[in-house]
């Protein structure tokens, strides 16, 4: 169990039962990924939607100005939106809200993903050959263990692989040089990955201001997955249909009014 909560959420079993159950689900059979990358799901949804996508442009403030919200971006653009959906965690975000919004304090669990092309060092793992090391090495809670998991992402040949290392702290070059006997290329990403779970969880509201400012990522206090985020997003869409358009949320909308998301840039998953 400890291994699954560490691999899925970078945390010990000291998390809520639901997040623990989701970790278990993710370790069993029946999990899937889109061939070529899960990013294609987001790209596909955007392609079939009637939306204008602004990449590489961050929203730095959201102000309620009576009948609409004004979203100001780092590129100096201002967008007027009758409905605004925040679809990124606010915990480490610098978006300024006017009037201010109140969300319970929540720490994010940082997961350092380090991608290494090369070969693992059998000496580090106490075996004779790299081929004896399993495709997934997952660890338990022990302060002496510097990583959560190491798995093979791609195998080019017996001595040339790409590995994915998850850890709570950044992996130093010296540490990587002890774990890998060959290291041709290294890519590091520090993700503010998921909430640092602490049961009983306090949830931020899904409607941030009682009007038409919505927050998808409030749901992540229950569990943080692509599927649950999609369900949370659908529920927000239904809320908008019923609260803004005054429609039965089971019917698709045919009305064209402006709505904006503060998370219009796409991200590929680790
Ligand atoms: C290392 C790692 C491994 C994971 N593994 C899995 C897994 O195997 N299975 C699974 O289901 N889930 C996994 N997850 C969780 C999954 O990635 C998240 O649940 C999912 O990405 C949440 O989607 P989202 O759209 O809410 O947020 P995100 O995917 O984080 O998207 C938020 C977007 O908002 C953008 N943004 C941020 N601030 C602004 C701003 N001010 N203005 C404009 N745009 C902004 C960001 O650039 C980003 O594109 C993993 C997460 C991590 C970090």
Bound molecules: flavin-adenine dinucleotide
Number of strands: 12
Please give the share of residues in helix: 10-25%
Instruction: Compute the average pLDDT.
Output: 91
Which structural class should the secondary elements be placed in? alpha/beta
Low-confidence stretches: 264-270
Termini separation: 22 Å
Biased composition (Polar residues): 250-270
Cofactor: FAD
Protein name: Prenylcysteine lyase domain-containing protein
Family: Belongs to the prenylcysteine oxidase family.
Describe, in short, the structure shown:
With 270 residues, this protein is α/β, with parallel strands linked by helices. It has helices at residues 2-9, 17-27, 39-48, 122-125, 173-179, 226-243; strands spanning 59-64, 69-73, 78-81, 83-86, 96-98, 108-120, 136-138, 149-157, 160-167, 180-195, 213-215, 259-261.
Question: How does this structure look, described?
Answer:
A hairpin with a 4-residue loop joins strand 1 (59-64) and strand 2. The chain has two domains: 2-32 and 108-195, no CATH class; 52-107 and 199-261, FAD/NAD(P)-binding domain (3-Layer(bba) Sandwich), CATH 3.50.50.60. It is built from six helices and twelve strands. 23% of the residues are buried. A five-stranded antiparallel beta sheet has the order 7-8-9-6-10. A four-stranded mixed beta sheet has the order 3-2-1-5, with no helix packed on it. It has a three-stranded parallel beta sheet with strand order 11-4-12, with no helix packed on it. Helices cover 21% and strands 29% of the residues. The chain has helices at residues 2-9, 17-27, 39-48, 122-125, 173-179, 226-243, and strands at residues 59-64, 69-73, 78-81, 83-86, 96-98, 108-120, 136-138, 149-157, 160-167, 180-195, 213-215, 259-261. With 270 residues, the chain is an alpha/beta fold. The longest helix has 18 residues, at 226-243. Bound molecules: flavin-adenine dinucleotide. Flavin-adenine dinucleotide is lined by residues 58-59, 87-88, 93, 95, 111, 113, 191, 193, 216-217, 224-227, 229, 262-267, 269-270.
């Amino acid at each position: 169990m400890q291994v699954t909560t560490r691999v899925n959420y970078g945390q010990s079993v000291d998390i809520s039962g639901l997040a623990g159950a989701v970790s278990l689900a993710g370790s069993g059979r029946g999990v899937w990924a889109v061939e070529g990358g899960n990013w294609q799901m987001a790209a596909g949804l955007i392609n079939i939607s009637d939306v204008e996508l602004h990449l590489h442009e961050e929203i730095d403030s959201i102000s309620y100005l009576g009948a609409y919200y004004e979203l100001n971006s780092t590129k100096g653009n201002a967008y007027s939106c009758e409905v605004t959906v925040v679809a990124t965690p606010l915990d480490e975000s610098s978006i300024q809200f006017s009037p201010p919004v109140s969300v319970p304090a929540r720490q994010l669990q940082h997961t350092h993903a380090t991608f290494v092309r090369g070969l693992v060092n059998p000496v580090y793992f106490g075996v004779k050959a790299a081929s004896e090391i399993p495709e997934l090495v997952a660890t338990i809670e022990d302060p002496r263990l510097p990583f959560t998991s190491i798995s093979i992402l791609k195998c080019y040949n017996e001595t040339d692989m790409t590995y994915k290392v998850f850890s709570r702290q950044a992996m130093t070059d010296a540490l990587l040089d002890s774990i890998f006997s060959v290291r041709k290329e290294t890519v590091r990403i520090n993700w503010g990955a998921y909430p640092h779970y602490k049961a009983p969880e306090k949830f931020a509201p899904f409607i941030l201001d009682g009007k038409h400012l919505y927050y998808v990522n409030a749901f992540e206090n229950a569990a943080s997955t692509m599927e649950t985020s999609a369900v949370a997003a659908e529920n927000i869409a239904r809320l908008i249909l019923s609260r803004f358009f005054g429609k039965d949320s089971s019917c698709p909308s045919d009305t064209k009014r402006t709505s904006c998301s503060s998370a219009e840039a796409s991200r590929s998953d680790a």
